[in-house]
Design a protein that fits this description.
There is one protein chain. The chain has one domain: FMN-linked oxidoreductases (TIM Barrel). By secondary structure, the chain is an alpha/beta fold. It has an eight-stranded parallel beta barrel, surrounded by six helices. The structure holds SN-glycerol-1-phosphate. The site of SN-glycerol-1-phosphate has 14 residues, from β8 and α9.
């Protein structure tokens, strides 16, 4: 978290690759890892809405051995916790009103988390309407916020900050048709003082840069890299990200 805060205060931008364990085959991970190492990514997020497989520990161990990037869990539920990661985005789905995702899963995760040394990063998570129903909406059974509800999104994010969240994550959903609107990113970024993560449906350099320009501190790329591991070669991002990467690697 300290590194993320330092990046924010130095106006350095961060880029995370999201890996969904359900879609990865351990046997054929080598080429993917080599693409990760060539990419400008500064962080790896591991998780998905519905993963219930058993190879999470092995996957994270491999990533830790073969990359130098911090690995953060991005869990859909408490079964997706691995002690092998560096930290966990401890999510609260603040845009929804489903108590399971506001507090129940968090309580159930405690006995597991207490047996690990994971850095626990409290994260307010806001699901934003993105054109069609996403897995997060289906699994969490919550309604996303309307795309034009800018002030309310900012107010929720600020409530998260007041409640002690250390990060806010604006999420359009994996594979979303439309990513989070730039106006919403800026409205939220202006209102909060904690770092802002933006993800869901971002699939071009233009969209990455737009999110950074609007005020995102970290952008998350999942589907675009999953579908094409050459994504970052074709979509070289800001040199700011690359500089930050070398700093994180040296930390
Ligand atoms: C999903 O924000 C992430 O939780 C990434 O979304 O798969 O659309 O890049 P994509």
């Amino acid at each position: 978290y300290k590194t993320i805060l330092e990046a924010k205060s130095g106006n350095q931008k961060l880029l995370a690759i999201l890996l969904d364990p359900d879609k990865l085959d351990l046997e054929s991970l080598e080429p993917l890892i080599s693409k990760i190492n060539q990419s400008p990514a500064t962080h790896l997020l591991v998780g998905g809405s519905s993963f219930s497989g058993t190879h999470l520990d092995e996957l994270i161990l491999l990533l830790k051995q073969k990359t130098t990037l911090p690995v953060l869990l991005f869990p859909g539920n408490p079964s997706q916790i691995s002690a092998e990661a560096d930290g966990i985005l401890f999510l609260q789905l603040l845009s929804g009103r489903n108590p399971e995702y506001l507090i129940e899963h968090q309580i159930n995760a405690v006995p597991v988390l207490e047996k690990t040394e994971l850095e626990i990063i409290s994260t307010g998570y806001l699901l934003i309407e993105s054109g069609s129903k996403t897995a997060v909406e289906r699994v969490s059974q919550t309604k996303p916020l309307a795309r034009n509800n800018l002030n309310y999104a900012a107010q929720i994010a600020k409530a998260g900050e007041f409640m002690g969240n250390k990060l806010i994550y604006l999420e359009a959903g994996s594979g979303a048709q439309k990513s989070v609107p730039s106006e919403m990113i800026s409205r939220v970024a202006e209102r909060i003082t904690i770092p802002l993560i933006v993800g869901g449906g971002i699939r071009s350099k233009g969209a990455i840069d737009d999110a950074f320009r609007a005020g995102a501190d970290m952008v998350v790329i999942g589907t675009a890299f999953e579908n094409d591991t050459g994504f970052f070669e074709k979509n070289v991002t800001d040199s700011q990200v690359l500089n930050q990467k070398s700093q994180i690697k040296n930390a």
